[in-house]
Design a protein that fits this description.
Layout: H1 2-25, E1 26-32, H2 35-51, E2 55-62, H3 64-73, E3 78-82, H4 83-90, H5 99-114, E4 116-118, E5 128-133, H6 134-140, H7 145-151, E6 156-159, H8 161-165, H9 170-177, E7 183-186, H10 191-197, E8 203-207, H11 212-215, E9 218-220, E10 233-238, H12 239-244, H13 246-252, H14 261-272, H15 278-288
Parallel strand pairs: 1-2, 6-7, 6-8
Antiparallel strand pairs: 3-10, 4-10, 5-8, 5-9
Helix pairs in contact: 2-15, 4-5
């Protein structure tokens, strides 16, 4: 009996040491629960794996609040987030500010409050937008939200339920631009795009890097009064991790300005519409930029 207890204690001790060793030697990359995040998370994972001797683990399919809690607790070490999400969702700001101001606030307060480092932007802005069919844009001369406001009474808006009801969504957007649509319909997911194709609606909301915009050949209108906050994507890393692996931060800085809205939209299109594997899509992109 004593011999069995000794054996069990040895096994448990070895298991504990194995977990402790893993925690000390493995960098965990996180990602949220949508296509773009999976592509970006794979970019981080592949970049580190190909250029360092650091062991890397990848955890994804997390909501914004879950992934942020995970990096604060140390369950993950780095991930990509968006300046507007940090500014509005995590830090609780609502004032309209420039992209530079939002980024500066995000950088300062993530460091001061949570000891997290937000690095430089990858180069694209995944903000909310309104989009129309190109024939609709040509018919009404639409390039900006202000152009849309002038003819909004003739058009039907189809948008997600959330955007139709949030204060930082359609209600205050209409006030800012003095818009008044002929009708407003709550339509979620890809049904918005099929409704656009059938001309059941003429305007819909989207993320500016949504691959479905390419699939349905829609035109993204310019938010000329900057109602929606900027959502520039940038890597976020725990300061302790950056200090422990100084080569890691230098490596991540190579990701500066490697993407724009169009190229990110194309990558999302390849995964969402062409059904490519997110890992292989990320690998192909990094190779095309000479990063792996």
């Amino acid at each position: 009996m004593k011999k069995m207890m000794v054996v069990m204690m040895v096994v448990l001790s070895m298991a504990f040491l194995s977990v402790a060793c893993k925690a000390k030697t493995t960098v965990v990359v996180g990602a949220k629960d949508f296509t773009e995040q999976d592509i970006l998370g794979n970019m981080l994972y592949l970049l580190i794996e190909a250029n360092t001797d650091i062991k890397v683990e990848y955890k994804h399919e997390m909501s914004s609040n879950v992934v942020f809690a995970a990096i604060k607790s140390g369950d993950i070490d780095l991930y990509v987030d968006y300046t507007g999400t940090v500014y509005g969702n995590y830090l609780g700001y609502s004032e309209m500010r420039s992209a530079e101001e939002v980024y500066a606030i995000a950088v300062k307060e993530l460091k001061d409050q949570y000891n997290l480092l937000m690095l430089e932007s990858l180069g694209f802005n995944n903000t909310y937008t309104l989009s129309v069919r190109k024939d609709t844009a040509e018919k009404y001369g639409l390039k900006t939200y202000s152009d849309l406001a002038k003819v909004s009474q003739d058009l039907i808006l189809g948008a997600t339920f959330e955007v139709l009801n949030r204060n930082d969504g359609i209600p205050n957007l209409k006030k800012t631009y003095a818009m008044s649509f002929k009708d407003e319909k709550a339509i979620d997911g890809t049904l918005r795009y099929t409704a656009m194709a059938k001309d059941e609606i003429q305007v819909t909301d989207a993320f500016s890097t949504d691959g479905m915009l390419l699939e349905y050949d829609l035109l993204v209108l310019e938010d000329d009064q900057h109602f929606f906050p900027p959502y520039y994507a940038a890597p976020v890393i725990r300061a302790q991790t950056a200090e422990k692996y100084p080569e890691l931060q230098n490596l991540l800085l190579k990701l500066r300005q490697i993407l724009d809205d169009e190229s990110m939209r194309e990558l999302n299109y390849r995964v969402d519409v062409l059904k490519e594997n997110p890992t292989e899509t990320a690998r192909d992109f990094l190779k095309s930029r000479g990063l792996i």
